[in-house]
Design brief:
There is one protein chain. The chain is built from 9 helices and 7 strands; from the N terminus they run ααββαβαβαβαβααβα. The chain is an alpha/beta fold and 254 residues long. The protein has one domain. A 7-stranded mixed β-sheet has the order 1-7-6-2-5-3-4, with helices on both faces. Helix 4 links the parallel strand 3 and strand 4.
Length: 254
């Protein structure tokens, strides 16, 4: 039964994604991709697509705390690719993503079309360009979200935050808000650390099958109400790391 569930979910999500893209691409061309209407359409699409896909996956999304006002930088712990759907359904934001995502079938082209900022973490010479893109997005009034751990984890804690991408906020005084994400599964299903979180050396295809075989799972997002402003990037990294870690621990214990 769980295998059939996985196959049906995969097929329906694929068809739904293609259908939404078939509507979205010509619609953005008609109104202008960079126009206010085009940006509004982008935001509508990302949020709607994320919520629909999560529902099809059997996710129960719970969001608490005030959504940070734009423009701002938003940082979160990172548990894998499901975070993009969960956070995309919770807040209107641009993502900073690892460069490999650009080459993923369908997902990569969609991410590029809707403003994702791509970063090759192995090419440090690219950082000034990426930070310039982050600054430009903030100047246009966007929220920009990234994962300062630099990789994903199994959800039991957080890794040290890297400060490089906090430079635009530190230099220009934009507020930095924090979010924490946590997953849990039903009794009898594999734990979220193995079936929802994608981390370490997990095979993507095998993990996707395990995820889609779940009866359902719980996804919780908490936004911290207070921003961090006017600090150096290393101080911002240290303070936001503590804030996200504290929120995550409360989620784990609740």
């Amino acid at each position: 039964m769980s295998t059939l569930r996985a196959l049906v979910r995969l097929f329906v999500i694929f068809v739904t994604t293609l259908s939404l893209f078939a509507f979205m691409v010509p619609a953005r061309l008609c109104v202008g991709a960079r126009s206010p209407r085009g940006l509004h359409l982008r935001r509508w699409f990302v949020g709607r697509w994320s919520r629909v896909v999560l529902w099809m996956m059997g996710a129960k999304l719970e969001v608490s705390g005030p959504v940070p006002p734009a423009p701002c930088v938003l940082v979160s712990n990172h548990l894998g690719y499901v975070d993009i759907l969960v956070l995309g359904a919770s807040v209107d934001t641009l993502f900073v993503s690892k460069a490999e995502v650009r080459n993923w079938p369908l997902i990569g082209k969609g991410a590029a079309a809707f403003g994702t900022i791509f970063l090759d973490r192995e090419a440090r010479r690219q950082l000034p360009t990426v930070n310039a893109e982050i600054h430009a997005a903030l100047e246009k009034g966007d929220r920009v979200l990234f994962f300062p751990e630099g990789t994903s984890t199994g959800g039991s804690g957080i890794l040290p935050f890297k400060s490089s991408l906090l430079e635009p906020a530190a230099r220009s005084g934009y507020p930095v808000f924090c979010a924490a994400v946590h997953y849990s599964t039903s009794p009898g299903d594999p734990p979220a650390s193995q079936s929802v979180c994608w981390w370490g050396d997990m095979d993507f295809t095998g993990h996707l099958v395990r995820l889609f075989r779940l009866s359902h799972f719980r996804a919780r997002v908490v936004f911290h109400p207070e921003p961090h402003v006017g600090e150096g990037r290393k101080e911002l990294a240290a303070r936001t790391e503590r804030a996200v870690g504290d929120m995550l621990q409360r989620l784990i214990e609740s």
